[in-house]
């Protein structure tokens, strides 16, 4: 009986152990899925060392800092300051603990992403970034680096859409699109010229008594036929007959 009971206990322990392993594996898989989706949007930059110092071997996504409070340290420092972004506020590390060579990275400064990790268990996403000296037009290489942790509410990352996660990241790091990471403003719609009032139709020129033949021809053009009766002439048009006496209009029918 004791042997049978012991066997049951062992099997139960193995089952619990296997279940715990499966849960951990599932959590790791979920975290990896979120991390993979973020890495598809934010390409990691690979760096190495050469005679001039830190050198980029494979460029990645360039980010534009949107908020201050990110503390940078020289690239060869082992200790890196970690700023935490939570509930819309940046919580900066103390520069006292990191030496005198630290400096806060400015808003609108451009950085490379060196490392990205996501933890659904800890509800946080971590960015390790480094200054993009060439992007910032720096005369001397500095390549300061910093860590920013995006802390989400408990249980948030387990169900959050990757777009929601990126919205929070975008409050601190905007992807550089050539205009400082800001969304390009749409061109204002071209104002159309106000419609012009319709032009009144040209007033027809009239034939008046006393006008000369030249004046009538200037208005009506050359007649279809001219009836010459000496001092009296009749200019025949399609719709009108104009009578001249001594070269002046005396009648029009």
Topology:
Layout: H1 2-41, E1 46-50, E2 53-58, E3 62-65, E4 70-72, E5 82-86, E6 89-91, E7 103-105, E8 110-119, E9 124-131, H2 133-136, E10 145-151, H3 162-170, E11 173-175, H4 213-220, E12 225-229, E13 232-236, E14 241-245, E15 248-252
Keywords:
single chain, 253 residues, alpha+beta, 2 domains, 7-stranded mixed β-sheet, 4-stranded antiparallel β-sheet, 4 helices, 24% helix, 30% strand
Verbal overview:
The longest helix is centred in the N-terminal third of the chain and has 40 residues, at 2-41. The protein is of the alpha+beta class and 253 residues long. Mean pLDDT is 80; it is low at 4-31 and 183-187. The protein contains four helices and 15 strands. It is 24% helix and 30% strand. It folds into two domains: 31-175, no CATH class; 213-252, no CATH class.
């Amino acid at each position: 009986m004791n042997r049978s009971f012991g066997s049951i206990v062992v099997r139960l322990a193995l089952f619990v152990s296997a279940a715990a392993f499966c849960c951990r594996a599932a959590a790791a898989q979920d975290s990896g899925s979120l991390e993979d989706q973020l890495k598809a949007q934010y390409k990691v930059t690979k760096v190495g060392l050469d005679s001039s110092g830190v050198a980029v071997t494979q460029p990645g996504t360039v980010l534009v800092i949107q908020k201050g409070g990110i503390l940078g340290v020289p690239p060869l420092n082992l200790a890196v300051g970690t700023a935490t972004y939570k509930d819309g506020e940046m919580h900066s590390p103390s520069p006292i603990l990191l030496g005198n060579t630290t400096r806060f990275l400015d808003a609108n400064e451009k950085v490379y992403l060196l490392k990205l990790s996501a933890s659904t268990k800890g509800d946080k996403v971590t960015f390790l970034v480094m200054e993009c000296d060439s992007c910032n037009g720096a005369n001397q290489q500095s390549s300061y680096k910093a860590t920013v942790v995006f802390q989400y509410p408990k249980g948030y990352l387990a169900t959050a859409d990757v777009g929601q996660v990126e919205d929070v990241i975008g409050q601190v790091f905007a992807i550089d699109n050539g205009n400082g990471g800001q969304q390009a403003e749409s061109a204002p719609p071209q104002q159309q010229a106000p419609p012009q009032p319709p032009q009144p139709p040209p007033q027809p020129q009239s034939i008046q008594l006393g006008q000369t033949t030249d004046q009538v021809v200037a208005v009506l053009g050359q007649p279809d036929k001219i009836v010459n009766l000496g001092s009296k002439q009749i200019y025949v048009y399609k719709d009108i007959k104009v009578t001249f006496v001594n070269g002046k209009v005396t009648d029009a029918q």
